Amino acid sequence: MHPLAHLALIWAGVFAAAVAAKKTRLTPVLFYLFIGFLLVNVGVLPKQSGPFIREFAELGIIFIMFALGFDESTDNFISSLKKSWGIALFGALGPFAVAYVITDTIWNDPNISLMCALAMTATAVSLTMVSLRGEGLQHSVVATRIMTSAVIDNIGALVALAIMVPLAVGQESFSMASLVITGGKAALFFVLVTIIGAWIFPHKPSGWFRHVPIIGRFGVKHMLTFDHGRYATLVILLVALVVGLLASYFGFHPAIGAYMAGLIVKEEYFHIDDKKETGVYVGRVESAYEETKIIIDNAAFLWIGPVFFVDLGAKLLFDWELMLRILPYAAALTIGLFLVQVSTAGLAAKYTGGMTWHQSLMIGFGMLGRAELAFVVMDIAYVQHQILHVDAFFTLMITAFFLNVAVPLTIRWWRPYYNAAAARSI
Prior knowledge:
The protein is mainly alpha-helical. The protein has one domain (3-425): Up-down Bundle (Na+/H+ antiporter like fold). The protein contains 18 helices and 2 strands.
């Protein structure tokens, strides 16, 4: 099949998935995966993707992770960190532990169990926010807590992924020394990203960086606002790619660097300072930020990113014997994760976040989803490094599907009780 014909079929499937998602009010990710699964099993798509589609899908991962990081407000994240740390910590440790124990009991392989646990740790922020928006709760306190906790979880999962993948694929032998070395590399990478975000990116670099030629005179704002922001999208994608390559240099997936690049880019860097003819200083915000965000979101979630999910779904070649074999595993993992995620996140919200019981349970339901980052972990572990075998991959995909379906259903079920309790507290 010609690569462009392959891409045309995928894009047609993406549009069909978008229509289905709109009708059912579920996340499009589920339908992207299903479309890939359907098209490959009826013989429309080839069983093995060519280099063009594989690279296009890889670019999709980078766009998705950058867009997720770019969408987060660093200031809001830091301000609500104190009230959300418990939800993030216990809401991640519980699912990680139960996923590890269940998969280790089934397959008795620590590498597989680690990858399964990592994939089932990160919460799907976009899915939950769409579900809350559908119930009119997108601006509620529970939405803020879920958002912040999910970001913390995702960062933690990325750090763990950066450390564990080199160990799991044998790039480093599993010993305390190699663990320290790999952990040190991850820490150094995140320190470098922090330095870039805190001292180099700002309009006026601080510390000893202000004495460095060129860097000391210009921040990333000068590049983003050049020619009234016409090249802002190019600059921001260049930043994502460079930090992604930096992550790759340290042995991590470029998507990890792209996510961190998105986190350290602030909206204020797009603000254009202008002087009118009167000489009076006027600070004004051009449309560069909004335009760039629209372009990034469209690329990540509408036409480049979806190729990654469709191609990932196309890895699921249907086999009755396989399905019957793994359904009990998927059922055990789904039930275990559902109970542990809701209980740990809910209890943490109550006792560390100061939430009421009706708010705490809503937070627990809101953290059930598994989407973008979970599938990135699956792709890295199954497609790129073959850490997961087909049984584990199918088990994770089915589990993620049912957990994602549970999010809008449980939020819609709990909303009347949530609203009633909120009205009584006024």
